[in-house]
Design a protein that fits this description.
single chain, about 350 residues
């Protein structure tokens, strides 16, 4: 691809498709979060809502396993020529399963009650920004660190740790990096489960703060630990990043629906989630390479510290919502826990 025009067009198409994919994922995540949160019994919203949050960890472990098996079963030349397509083709099975579930699931009781009271709005996007713009901005800022750490760990570290010519820094083999991805995905799942369960006991806000504050320390520490370039140091470093990622991500699917009114809860939660994805998911992949080139891996670590600080400040500006009622009942009484959604 030596033609500059063709190369530029290809990049533009890829960026556009990636943006559309992000919007779709954000919308489906919001739907999954709302379904689990609104169906959950009292006091167990964190437990029920953790299942959508396990998706990235399970996906990372499964994709790393699939690529590892594919890479070991064929030569590097065959893998580069056509083998890398196999994992993507296998994903059609998951798409079919997801579509079947999506078409057969019923609406939640909260949505049905809202429909009966004729609370639907024609422009939920506009009304959510008008009435709860603060929650949209704060939730986006709250999730900035989680997206930043996830994409740094799952995407950037793949090239940072590998042996790709002119890219790899740690000099680890492709199988080692993929095994690290499997371990990272499993560690992430454990952190999500633990934090989601604790959010039902001590509140969402406290758990979120533990994760965002810890990320400010773990970010540079993880890159220092990985600096020797050994297999063990890489596994420890990426696992630490996944722990501080999983802690705030676990309660997020319960926390965001609790922050928004029923009539535009789907839209509000989706906008906050997508905003966090833009701020935390896009920028690290752009700024990480030049930071690493100028300051080494520690520069990327301190960038994650900055994202952690932003998320911490946003969480501090928010209220805990563990006891908020989201069943579509009457408006919250000022001064009560349920008033946190207003």
């Amino acid at each position: 691809m030596n033609c500059p025009v063709l190369r530029t067009s290809t990049v533009a198409v890829l960026v556009t498709l990636r943006a559309l994919q992000g919007l779709a994922v954000g919308g489906e995540w919001a739907g999954a979060a709302l379904l689990t949160a609104e169906y959950a019994p009292s006091g167990k919203r964190g437990l029920y809502s953790m299942f959508p949050q396990l998706g990235p960890g399970v996906a990372l472990a499964m994709s790393s396993t699939t690529f590892l098996i594919t890479a070991l079963a064929m030569s590097p030349e065959s893998f580069a020529a056509w083998g890398w397509r196999i994992p993507f083709l296998l994903s059609f099975v998951l798409v079919a399963v997801g579509l079947y579930i999506r078409l057969n699931i019923e609406e939640t009781p909260a949505f049905k009650q809202s429909t009966a009271r004729r609370e639907q709005v024609k422009l939920p996007f506009v009304e959510a920004l008008r009435d709860q713009w603060r929650q949209v901005l704060l939730t986006g800022g709250m999730l900035t660190m989680t997206f930043g750490v996830f994409y740094t760990s799952s995407v950037y570290l793949t090239s940072h740790a590998g042996q790709a010519p002119g890219v790899g820094v740690l000099g680890l083999s492709r199988p080692t990096v993929l095994v690290g991805g499997i371990i990272a995905g499993l560690v992430f799942c454990v952190a999500v489960i633990t934090s989601a369960l604790y959010s039902d006991r001590i509140g969402r806000r406290r758990v979120l703060l533990v994760g965002t504050v810890a990320s400010m320390i773990v970010g540079p520490s993880a890159f220092l630990i990985m600096q020797p370039g050994s297999m063990l140091s890489f596994f420890v470093g990426i696992s630490l990043l996944m722990v501080v990622l999983g802690i705030p991500y676990g309660p997020a699917a319960a926390y965001l629906p609790e922050l928004f009114h029923t009539r535009y809860r789907y839209t509000g939660a989706g906008m906050g989630y997508n905003l966090g994805g833009i701020l935390g998911g896009a920028l690290p992949l752009i700024v990480a390479p030049p930071l690493a080139a100028e300051f080494g891996g520690i520069g990327v670590g301190f960038y994650l510290t900055a994202l952690g600080l932003i998320s911490t400040l946003c969480v501090l500006a928010m209220k805990d919502t563990k006891d908020v009622v989201i069943d579509g009942g009457p408006p919250a009484v000022p001064g009560t826990a349920a008033a946190a959604t207003s």
